Amino acid sequence: MEEPGERMAGPPYLLRHRRLMDIAPASPSDSGHSGSKGMTIMVSILVVVIICTLFYCVYCWRWRKRNAVRRAQIESLRPLSNSDLPLMDLTSIHEATNSFSKENKLGEGGFGPVYRGVLSGGAEIAVKRLSARSRQGAAEFRNEVELIAKLQHRNLVRLLGCCVEREEKMLIYEYLPNRSLDAFLFDTRKSGQLDWKMRQSIILGIARGMLYLHEDSCLKVIHRDLKASNVLLDNKMNPKISDFGMAKIFEEESNEVNTGRVVGTYGYMAPEYAMEGVFSVKSDVFSFGVLVLEILSGQRNGSMYLQEHQHTLIQDAWKLWNEDRAADFMDASLAGSYSRDEAWRCFHVGLLCVQENPELRPTMSNVVLMLISDQTQMPAPAQPPLFARFKKVSVSEFSLAMKTDTTKTQSVNEVSISMIEPR
């Protein structure tokens, strides 16, 4: 007799069938959803990989192209060895600057960092090294070397040589230990070191340097950024004009040029240039006049003066001149120790240079003549410009513009590569 459990169990194939029936089959909709989701992930990953690969290929292509252009530019500079300017080797410059150590860094400008160096013979130099971030490239470097290097004058900073090696581009200048004029002139602790004879000598030296640029050199150069921080002082306090980064060189006679790009420093900028983009040698004359008034007063024609007095240093000078109170304009650190006739002559020349009408301003040759000869008859100066005439802005807005472009970090040798644009 069969046991009840055995009858209920049934044949083996029926047991297997029941077990298979107990397993719930996956629905077609669930299977399709999982497959779709997996396909989306795979496609997304593939797209990302393709995009990353394309970006990498473009980056590599641009990197190779940029390096090829840079190598071509460097190779194009090799013929400079045939010029009058000495080529210096990179090893000597590394030794002179102690491999561009931080201790030897003097400052940094638009061209790049500047380092003090000492050559094996004991001569001190200032090395300007082109930065990778600099907007000035091989073309501007070549212009600096081939053109500015030809301008040799005792009142211009001298370019001693250059270095073009291993994708390095460097300019080597004479080293000037006494920093820039503004470091003395606008520092109450140091302004006393500038006595009257020294100030008079600085004014005349700057005038002679500008005369050389405008009329006596083989090229006609308009500086466009003459100011106290761009006048360096040697160990005997002789002035040397530097920073030709905004200079314009003309290969033909021209009275004035209209440029679409106004560059320079507010406070020193001639009104016709600041407002209309018109510059000429008379634009430099205006800047020289502002500089003369700053040297006489010991005050900067900048935002702080404007905020304190509600007018510019130029307007203050004009007011005191008309009221016959020129003595009140002179730097208090002089303590009255100056020749009245010499000081008044410089004051008169300064006001002639900052006249609103550029045609009334003297040329630099006339400026030098008026400064060295007390027999020269000088016309009465006309009123200098009022900034309110040129642009309707508030004092605070104008002072902000002046502050933006006049407060720059001082460096011991503030010289930079020229951006020369011949006509």
TrEMBL record:
GO biological process, one term: signal transduction
The enzyme's E.C. designation: 2.7.11.1
Domain of life: Eukaryota
Positions in coiled-coil regions: none
Residue stretches making up the Protein kinase domain: 100-387
Catalytic reaction equation(s): L-seryl-[protein] + ATP = O-phospho-L-seryl-[protein] + ADP + H(+); L-threonyl-[protein] + ATP = O-phospho-L-threonyl-[protein] + ADP + H(+)
GO cellular component terms listed in the entry, alphabetical order: plasma membrane
Molecular-function GO term, any one: protein serine/threonine kinase activity
Transmembrane annotation, as ranges: 39-61
Keywords, sorted A to Z: ATP-binding, Disulfide bond, Glycoprotein, Kinase, Membrane, Nucleotide-binding, Serine/threonine-protein kinase, Signal, Transferase, Transmembrane, Transmembrane helix
The protein's name: non-specific serine/threonine protein kinase
